[in-house]
Amino acid sequence: MSVASLFDRLEPHLLSVSKPIQYVGGELNSVGKDWDSVDVRWALMYPDAYEVGLPNQGVQILYEVLNERPWILAERTYSVWPDMEQVLREQGIPQFTVDSHRPVGAFDLFGISFSTELGYTNMLNALDLAGIPIRSADRTDEHPVVIAGGHAAFNPEPIADFVDAAVLGDGEEIVLAISEVVREWKGEGSPGGRVELLRRLAASGGVYVPRFYDVSYDDRGHLAAVVPNHPDAPDRVRKHTLMDLDSWPYPANPLVPLAETVHERFSVEIFRGCTRGCRFCQAGMITRPVRERSIETIGKMVDNGVKKTGFEEVGLLSLSSADHTEIGEVAKGLADRYEGSNVSLSLPSTRVDAFNITLANEFSRNGRRSGLTFAPEGGSERMRRVINKMVTEEDLIRTVATAYSNGWRQVKLYFMCGLPTETDDDVLQIAELAKKVIAKGREVSGRNDIRCTVSIGGFVPKPHTPFQWASQLDVETTDERLRKLRETVRADKRFGRAIGFRYHDGQPGIIEGLLSRGDRRVGRIIEEVWRDGGRFDGWSEHFSFERWAAAAARALEGTGVDLDWYTTRERDYDEILPWDHLDSGLDKDWLWSDWEDALAAADGSEVEVEDCRWTPCYDCGVCPEMGTEIQIGPTGRQLLPLSVV
Description:
Distance between the termini: 45 Å
Domain Radical SAM core: 260-498
InterPro entries: CHP03960_rSAM, Elp3/MiaA/NifB-like_rSAM, Radical_SAM_N2, rSAM, rSAM_horseshoe, rSAM_sf
Number of strands: 18
Low-confidence stretches: none
Strand order of the largest sheet: 2-1-3-4-5
Largest sheet: 5 strands, parallel
Helix content: 25-40%
Oligomer: single chain
Organism: Nocardioides panacisoli
Protein name: TIGR03960 family B12-binding radical SAM protein
Strand content: 5-15%
Radius of gyration: 25 Å
Structural class: alpha/beta
Mean pLDDT: 94
Pfam family, one: Radical_SAM
């Protein structure tokens, strides 16, 4: 039977909350469907505020892929701000979708995409507001199946008690496969209830259902085993890899927000995956292999997106966009197409060794030169060898000299603090590098208004990377190193005012590290934090380290482990890791070998793992394990001579 809209109950309270427009819906290109005309219904969530969640490409793509099928309905929901949460709780209004304002609890499936682990408390809040028991074991046949996806789903163990299932990897094909399973099960009269539905999903081999796996610990509190407790549950659950991106040119009907969002642009993913081999980078490891979109498809997607959204900025996105084999042709073709218009092109941060001034000039042909961003990551060459980012100081200085001499006035450099084997001196080298960048900029440009912004993030070890065994730097040492760096920069009267300095303290990184490499016991901590008021932990003004530390002490009492055990402790080869039963395609022995290479590089050895797009295979395991292969150009196609309408 039909499910009524909650908007009549919601509307009288909109003027009492901040940014009410985020709850109204009706965005350009959004989809509305009749509830009774479909067989399967999805509520999709990005667990953050509307302004952060709406631009998320993952949710937008799944929203469109699902709604293209006439028998599937998909609607969106986002985290509500605390003032709206208060209204919902006082008025008894449940968590709702923005498309038709239907209650989330009425849908068949509730899919949540996590790009960061700090969204876990927002998930619990949404479940509770929706009237869905936060623990999967307490749900009945009347509740939606809660499914986690996104990069954080590659270790869903900390939220295993709260989700019914998790999906690893690309979502376009698996959401349709899941929908087919649900459709068939419902068509048969829903035999066996939700347990039977979950069994069917687990039996497919591509959906991880935590309830079908038992976890045990040894006397020391270490993980002893994760084993299936159901004959239809596989020993290992594999990730999904979408091949031939040209066949999936989404989003084809991108959403245009009603309120200001963090990214006011139309974005096209020009390729997926990265094989540069940066040892800290989870995204680069878990999205292998590289799969490029052809120049023809990119041209069509950009043209379509500009026409359907009205956005004046187009972002060409990937993990390393300048590495697309036809990026020069893409840039020139698009710059030619939009020259003289209000449409500008942008790239995310560019690798120093992939930058060239011709490319930069094409992307700024319409006169917009807001600045260039490079990511050396490590302050010293020793650290860059450790992380396999083989960029020399000379490379960086030569690159910024080219930029400054061609009219750019500002460069942003991104680094990390807390990398394995790092010392105080490695971090202080960031200051010296920034000073040399300013000096070179002044020299080649003949101007004194040269700026360099240094942005520093804390290193967090991630699953399925060579650094998954590494210890994390403690809060006190992190903050002390950053203090010394800041003082070093400010003390230099020649360069201090020309160098901007942005950084995060060590506390949020430690909690992210806890959630990143945690096991099922960490779920108790997440629940305690949420019950204690934890919301929007990715926002500095809402994050409370003290709340997390206190919850960890209470939840882990008597387990033999504590917050430091999960974060600042180095693992060894024999330790069973919470995600070992989840298959990203990467061979664990290869990851360990690369970890050993990193330690050897710290001692001066020249150990480089080159990009396997251009070299023989390094046997990481992904291609043979997953039955995939690298897909790169040149494709022989051309950017279409798009006609002016």
